[in-house]
Amino acid sequence: MKAFYGDLRLGILGGGQLGRMLIQQSVNYNVSVRVLDPDENAPCKKLCDKFVIGSLADFDTVYNFGRQLDMLTIEIEKVNVDALQRLEDEGVLVFPQPRIIRIIQDKGLQKEFFKQNNIPTAPFQLISTKEALRTTNFRYPYIQKLRKDGYDGRGVYKVIGQEYLEGAFEGPTLIEEWIDFEQEIAVIVARNEDEDVKAFPCVEMEFNKDANLVEYLISPSTLALEIQQQAEHLAIQIANKLKIVGVLAVEMFLTKDGQLLVNELAPRPHNSGHHTIEANYTSQYEQHLRAIFNLPLGDVRLRTNAVMVNLLGEKDNEGLAVYDGLEDILEIDGVYVHLYGKKYTKPFRKMGHVTIIDEEREKAIEKARFVQKRVKVIS
Question: 3-class secondary structure for the chain?
Answer without folding.
Answer: CCCCCCCCEEEEECCCHHHHHHHHHHHHHCCEEEEEECCCCCCCCCCCCEEEECCCCCHHHHHHHHCCCCEEEECCCCCCHHHHHHHHHCCCEECCCHHHHHHHHCHHHHHHHHHHCCCCCCCEEEECCHHHHHHCCCCCCEEEEECCCCCCCCCEEEECCHHHHHHCCCCCEEEEECCCEEEEEEEEEEECCCCCEEECCCEEEEEECCCCEEEEEEECCCCCHHHHHHHHHHHHHHHHHHCCCEEEEEEEEEECCCCEEEEEEECCCCHHHCCHHHHECCCHHHHHHHHHCCCCCCCCCECCEEEEEEEEECCCCCEECEEECHHHHCCCCCEEEEECCCCEECCCCEEEEEEEEECCHHHHHHHHHHHHHHCEEEC
